[in-house]
Amino acid sequence: MADTGTAAGGGRATLEDVARAAGVSVATVDRVVNRRDGVRDKTIARVEAAVSRLGYRPDPAAARLARNQSFRFLFILPSGANSFMTLLAEQVARTADWLASQRAVIDVQHVDVFEPDALAKALETVLPGYAGVATIALDHPRVRAAIDDLAERGVPVVTLVSDVPSARRLHYVGIDNPAAGRTAATLMGRFLHGRSGAVGVIAGSLALRDHAERQFGFNQVLTVEYPQLTVFPAVEGQDDNELTYRATVSLLREKPDLIGIYNVGAGNRGIAAALDEAGRSSAIVWIAHELTAHTRRFLVRGEVDAIISQNPGHEARSAARVLLAYCSGDPLFPDQERIGIDIFLRDNLP
User: Are residues 316 and 167 in the same domain?
Assistant: First the structure.
């Protein structure tokens, strides 16, 4: 039968369709498509002509199936009750369902990422069977060394949400944190237009690069463009509601002219409790990060004035795509993997 340039059945062309059109075996087509040796030039030309006529595009999952190839990835996520990280873990689980169709598996390990020794140990003890690792990262010498050791072993590491740029990580998946801090400062300055006073900054941990970079960006804009506002050094709440509550109580007690709070990390329920207890909920401009069930409620009530957020689903899928593309030798599309900064007021809540 003559080749009409269409796949059998009229669907997407397969290796079998190309093999039939070129008059060769499927194994030969696989060799040609994947640029492996052992095929004569005339045969290569015939196969490539058939590929062009049929518009054949390789199916990576099918190719892995044909080679009995699969990948196992490890996602290292924070332990604790951080609402955003809980959302991220849920999205990683959903991403795992999609990856299963790509012959890839995700395992999740929960670690105290505020403790560098614990995070480094988790990275140092990654089992040999893993083809890649995604981790919430702490910018610490031992963590950097653990990431570099994995890279030396040929295991790619993607940093997720918080980066370690000096390490040999493959890719960072997260927002531009200095820009997020600058955005928070601009919002704070405009919300406090015409007022003078103190602004407090609460971070989970300044050892987390995303928290440190947000604080840097915030100070960069507020101190230059809004000199009537005094920014005080960040206090740490370890992303814990009780510790963040205590930090907020201290700010309110020590800074009677406090008119703004920027929470770089989590622990927002602690801030809400402290402001409510002091009767200051409506008097202080409060800018927070990450849209969760709790911050949504605070925003609707008018306690939080703005939320700067990142999409945990996009981040989970992006980390998986980056690792899968690296292991499969497929191209990466930077625009697809760029994580945007979302700004939510109560008027534009999704």
Answer: yes
